[in-house]
Amino acid sequence: MAVRRNGGVPPRLVNLLLERGHLELLIGAAAERGEWFCAETAARELCRFGEFERALGVLEPFAAIGWRPARWASADVLLHAGRVQEALELVRPDDVAREPEHVCRNFAELLAKVGRVDDAIAVLAPHLDRGWMLSALVELTQGQGREEQVLELIAPRAQRARSARAEGRWNDDASNAQELQAQVLERAGRVDEAVQVLGADIAAGRYLIQNTLAAYAELLQRQGRASRSCAHWRPESKRAPFSPSTPGPLRALGGLRRRRLFCGTSSPATNTRAAFAGP
What we know:
Layout: H1 11-19, H2 23-33, H3 36-48, H4 52-64, H5 68-80, H6 84-91, H7 101-113, H8 117-124, H9 131-140, H10 147-164, H11 177-187, H12 191-203, H13 210-222, H14 226-230, H15 248-255, H16 268-277
Helix pairs in contact: 1-3, 2-3, 3-4, 3-5, 4-5, 5-6, 7-8, 8-9, 9-11, 10-11, 11-12, 11-13, 12-13, 15-16
């Protein structure tokens, strides 16, 4: 079968046909002409009505030729039918260390969805030197009680990001590791540690991207610490907000003041130093 995805029936027309009750027409177009969008939409609609076997039948010719989207759509039907193990086996990567990252991320999400969180972590583990996969680890373990395990995996990446600037490694891919470490510490209830560790990194200039600065500012705001920290600094400070001699981290954090991430005083520099003060 030749799968028609480009140049076939466009998704907009497929949805219009379905809205007008032409489900059987879509099923016929999928079977006779290899119209993938018709097959995908028809299978989803059949699944919605509990016709799981028929939905699988619509997808089967596409899955049989190795069409990855069809395999994933079939796995979704199997999940709705309660056939979890079959769904997992249908899309399980042969070798998680060698498969493309997006394949492993999708499979890890499926594992987490069915409650196999430890297996999901194991699938992601070989790819955690990539920032977006590290983010996926944090996202998929949210609320799963795996904070300590996740922190152990993040720690070496955060340390590498911490030292990257001094070592001239400006393209470290897991440059978001520090903010993710603070995020997981926060959700584990270790707020003081999150504030202290991330604040110390920023004050010392041990970071690569401005998202890390924003993450720290937002952490202080969420915890109600920005205003309380301002109380530690005297308002009579007359230092010019950001001269050329002002360290880069302070200038960048000052720019965040427009987003109301820090308490409102007359000096952005005062706000920034207050943020570094911690709890």
